[in-house]
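User: Hello, can you help with two protein structures?

Assistant: Certainly.
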Amino acid sequence: MRKQYFKQEEGAPEPLRCTVERVARFEEVDALGIVWHGRYPSYFEDGRVLLGEKYGIGYLDLYRQEIIAPIKQMHVDYQRPLQFSDPFTIEAILHWSDAVRLNHEFILRNAAGEITTTGYTVQLLMDPEHNVLMVPPPFYQEFRERWQAGELT
């Protein structure tokens, strides 16, 4: 059974998802030939970037709106190692939150479809002076309304 990182809030829309395909590169493995544990945050980043670009809330979209979104929390659970040249997928899942934050979950699977790694990140939305936003900025509120209306797939 997979660990539930974020509770599905009652009345919340379904999470948004996307998948990235990758191959473990030589520079990403350690002397044992397995992907070094410190590489997984960059795999999460690959998923976060694609998901953000797909739904119009990517880093450049935030930048244009003068919003920054630093990582507040990150967690990784390792189930089985990836090795050099292993193909794998990164599923990025954005979970709904009533707070002004981005709750991403990640599921990495090997070519056999087995889960190798799971984890999550939480990003806060902040203004250029690093003040945490308590109210969604207009562009993000519009995104949330479209999500809640089922317009995003």
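That covers the first. Now for the second protein you mentioned:
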Amino acid sequence: MVKEFEVKVLNIDIESMEKRLVELGAKLIAKEVQINTLIDSSTKPIKSYLDAYLRIRETKDLLNNTESTTLTLKKNMLNDKIRENLELNTEVENKRVLLDILFDLGFDKIEVGNKNRTSYMFKGARIDLDIWDPDIYPYPYMEIEVENKEDLDRVIDILEIDRNNISLKSISELRKEL
């Protein structure tokens, strides 16, 4: 179980932000290609009883030449200042078998999206620069994941981020707004 605090930064130029991070000494920790499979039920959606979503993420880390597949139940906790999530993760040995099991349990809605992610560590924060397939989400954004609100404020100030571009919304919520 992992607790995380994060925000998305919208309306940014990914290339100039990455250049700024490097200039400020951020450490590159991952360059990934991801396949994210969202799973839900058409008859009893997860959101109808829990503020959460279920995801299988296949990750190919291009820096370390590793691959992994992880099932995550990501629960959103109530917090109006920062997006607070509780993640329940487990490694997956066989995605096809897992999907078959979930389908038999009533999880019949599957949505697949590809994402490129470049990640840095900077001043105690994990910074993810995300670019989805255009049909999933056409705008690049940055995620800042921290251990507490003070760290977030410090990183936002150092990177001179316009606070009007900070969002607590999930990718699903942002997609609904398109």
